[in-house]
């Protein structure tokens, strides 16, 4: 008799587990559908918001940045298609705006490459484009536009060098050593010596020569010898320093 009871108990336990598993799956499905419904409602609200604030989104850079931040968690990208709801809602599509800005950024990068080796501060790009446009280009729009250029190849990307955001427009690979030298140049107002590299970074001559050889060959740094000492000038960082001085 005790053996039979255990058998019945095991059977009931197995059935209970299946029932619990089925109920858990139902609850998961209900929960997922509820979440999807909530997201869809939020998307509708976002569309209504876009209609009500169309002018601000188009004309106010800070407002536009906040709007994009609102879109991201919902998986909404107003920049994806010119024929999307967002393009129609916002008149001249946001995608069009960033595409045109990306083209302008690329033009400036190509035009200045012989002077800076294909690396230029975001703030310098902003200053050049704002000078040539009726409306000021917002700094926060530039990384978004540069991101669009990545798909075209050519090495377009944003790098953080010290306290400066830089646009790199050449496929040259820059490792952490190159970034350290750029950061050192930034703190040295755009100019450093081999002694600066050895003293402040603790490198031997071979390591310093390897880094500087690439930067010099790409035109990202210039060498100026004075009394047997090599002074390395970084035009992109020096330009950034000059702008900071003029604004202070």
TrEMBL record:
<dbReference type="InterPro" id="IPR040608">
    <property type="entry name" value="Snf8/Vps36"/>
</dbReference>
<dbReference type="InterPro" id="IPR036388">
    <property type="entry name" value="WH-like_DNA-bd_sf"/>
</dbReference>
<dbReference type="InterPro" id="IPR036390">
    <property type="entry name" value="WH_DNA-bd_sf"/>
</dbReference>
<protein>
    <recommendedName>
        <fullName>Vacuolar-sorting protein SNF8</fullName>
    </recommendedName>
</protein>
<dbReference type="GO" id="GO:0000814">
    <property type="term" value="C:ESCRT II complex"/>
</dbReference>
<comment type="similarity">
    <text>Belongs to the SNF8 family.</text>
</comment>
<dbReference type="InterPro" id="IPR016689">
    <property type="entry name" value="ESCRT-2_cplx_Snf8"/>
</dbReference>
<dbReference type="GO" id="GO:0043328">
    <property type="term" value="P:protein transport to vacuole involved in ubiquitin-dependent protein catabolic process via the multivesicular body sorting pathway"/>
</dbReference>
<dbReference type="Pfam" id="PF04157">
    <property type="entry name" value="EAP30"/>
</dbReference>
